[in-house]
Every structure is written in C-alpha cells, then in structure tokens.
Design a protein that fits this description.
The chain is of the alpha/beta class. The protein folds into 2 domains: about 170 residues, Rossmann fold (3-Layer(aba) Sandwich), CATH 3.40.50; about 150 residues, 3-Layer(aba) Sandwich (Rossmann fold). Helix content is about 45%, strand content about 15%. The strands form 2 sheets. Strands 2-1-3-4 form a 4-stranded parallel β-sheet, sandwiched between helices. Helix 6 links the parallel strand 3 and strand 4. The relative contact order is 0.14.
Length: about 350
C-alpha cells in the first residue's frame, strides 16, 4: 500500500552524543536526564542531582564506555538508525525521515524539512517495541510540542508500541533461532529497566499495576500501557514460537540507575547463573531496535565479563534487529495497518 503524495514517515530513536569526547557526552547526558519523563522528580531535585552528582562524574565513565563501541563512522545507534531509514525508503518508495529524541538529527530539523516539502500527514514511529513514559510517551509529546510550534497544521499519526505485532514477534524469533542449540543452558531476555513508579504512572486503572505476581500475564485494561506486561507477553510469544522450554529462559532488566527499579537485575543474574548450573547462555536485548551502548558495552562487554568471572563458560550475545530485512518489513506493515 502506497502513502499519498502528501504523507510521510518519521522514525524516532533515542539518540547519542554527537562526538566521542567528554564535552559532547556531558551535553547529551544533561539533555537526556533533564527530561521529566525520564527522571520524574520535582524539577529542583532533578537538577540538583544532575549538576551535583551526575554531570561532574558520569561523563568520564560514559566516555570510556562509548570509546569501546564507537566506530570510524560514529555512534552505532545513529548508523543503524540511518540504515533503517534508507532501507525503508528504498523498499517502499515512501518519504522517510529520521530524528533522535535527544541531540541530532533533531525532531525540529526533521519536521522543518517535511514542512518545506508540504507533507500534510506524518506517521510517527518511536523505535521502541514496548510502551514506557521514558521512551514512547516522551517522544510523542516532544514531536507534538515541536509540531505545535513550527508545523501546527500537520496531522500526526502516532504508533504507541508494537510489542505484540506478529511481524515483530516473528522478526525477534528469527533473530534468535540460529543461536538456539541443545547445549545452551538458558537464554536471557534482557530488557531495559525502568522505575516501578513509571509503570504505576501509566496504569490507566489507577492502582492495579504490580499488585500481584501474575498481573503482567493477564489481558486487561491495566496492560494497555504497562511496560512490564508488554515485555512479558512479547517474550512468551517468542518462546512459544521457538518452542523453548520454560526452564530454559528467563526475563531480566538492565541499566538500572537507582532503587525501586524492575527486577531481577541482569547484572546480578549474570553473576548468579553459573552457580545455578547455567554455564552456557544466550542473551538478547529486545528493548532495543538498534545496537547501542546498552547492548554492545553494557551487555556484550561488561555483562560478559561478569558472567565469565562468575565461572560461566560460554555467553553468546544475539544482536538487535538493526536494519534487518525483517525489521524493515515490520515497519512497512505497521504503517500499512495504520492506513487500512
């Protein structure tokens, strides 16, 4: 199905520092951690923590982490995102623009370019499969805010999430299938962690989320915007499609910053798994469409070190979907479904 001549697609990913230096990384962290939907504390407290405890110390550590994955062409996340943009445009013939929620290419620049060419309707896809206020919601609000300022007459069609889209489940399963072998003790689905309070804030029932162990396995109104429910249901669909036995997989959450985040923690599980007899594991990070700092450095470098130092024997990291044929087909299908 073709878009109309005045319709376009805008893909939005998280973003990355502009350059591999301390100043650029500090600015990226400043912008990212000043987002009220990421660090949802009273503004004064948020900024005090940011300027007193994070920005004086974190950039140096983050620079070291980025230096281990940076390429001659820049950030892996930006490279992957641009490849997705180009391949989707080539496959469909659609006008496909790309923006980052933080830093460049900016949402403002993308919308200005689309306005210049008089596009009247834009399908906006935040490149996050699962809904969370710190990813999908903040992206939608920022795109809407910028559009209200510079492009008020454009129609925006937002994609909330696509964790349960059949082509997403198929794509994720296809990416895992070549790695699944009988000798693997376990596969870890490592999702980006978020504070539990974020889940409660997006609970449309206003009080049901996280009250029981089984709540995220149920289909009810609470699951509509529940990140944990989305990752659980996506994982269940994938392991069913791949026919993976229950004792052969588990869910964990990475990248925690403070207390009150979703558990179990990936780093803790990587240290513990060998002691439980799981010495040969696979690990996949389905929260991320594009490989980035959190997958390449946190999991494939630091996570691997943690696992091996805990007497693990083999850990295989499964790459993100990136610009795979399956991912491009999924994005095309999402837009076509919205149009029909």
């Amino acid at each position: 199905m073709n878009l109309k001549a005045d319709e376009a697609v805008l893909l939005v990913n998280l973003g990355s520092p502009k350059e591999l230096n301390k100043r650029s990384i500090r600015e990226y962290l400043r912008i990212f951690l000043s987002d009220d939907y990421v660090v949802d504390l009273p503004k004064i407290l948020q900024q005090l923590i940011l300027y007193l405890f994070i920005l004086p110390f974190r950039p140096r550590k983050t620079l070291h982490a980025y230096s281990q994955i940076w390429t001659e062409f820049g950030s892996p996340l930006i490279i992957s995102s641009r490849n997705i943009q180009k391949k989707l445009a080539k496959k469909t013939g659609w006008k496909v623009s790309l923006a980052m929620r933080y830093e460049d290419p900016s949402i403002k620049d993308a919308l200005e370019e689309l306005k210049e060419h008089s596009y009247k309707k834009i399908y906006v896809i935040p490149l996050y499969p699962h809904y969370a206020m710190s990813t999908v919601l903040t992206t939608q609000l920022e795109v809407q805010r910028v559009a209200n300022d510079i492009y008020y007459d454009v129609e925006l069609e937002f994609i909330d999430s696509f964790y349960d889209h059949p082509k997403y489940i198929e794509a994720l399963a296809d990416s895992i299938k070549p790695y699944v072998k009988k000798e693997n003790d376990k596969i870890i689905f490592s999702y980006h962690g978020i504070p539990e309070r974020h889940i409660k804030k997006t609970d449309i029932s206003r009080g049901s989320c996280l009250n029981t162990e089984s709540c995220c396995y149920e289909n009810n109104e609470c699951s509509t915007y529940c990140y944990r429910s989305h990752v659980v249901k996506a994982t269940l669909a994938v392991v069913e499609l791949l026919n993976i036995e229950e004792e052969k997989w588990e869910i964990a959450f990475q990248s925690r910053i403070g207390p009150g985040w979703l558990k179990p923690f990936t780093d803790k599980r990587l240290a513990q798994l060998p002691k439980e007899g799981a010495k040969s594991i696979l690990i996949v990070c389905p929260s991320f469409i594009s490989d980035c700092l959190e997958t390449l450095e946190e999991i494939n470098i630091r996570g691997r070190k943690t696992f091996m130092e805990g007497q693990g024997e083999s850990m295989e990291y499964i790459p993100c979907l990136n610009d795979s044929k399956q991912l491009i087909g999924l994005l095309e299908s999402i837009i076509n479904t919205k149009k029909s």
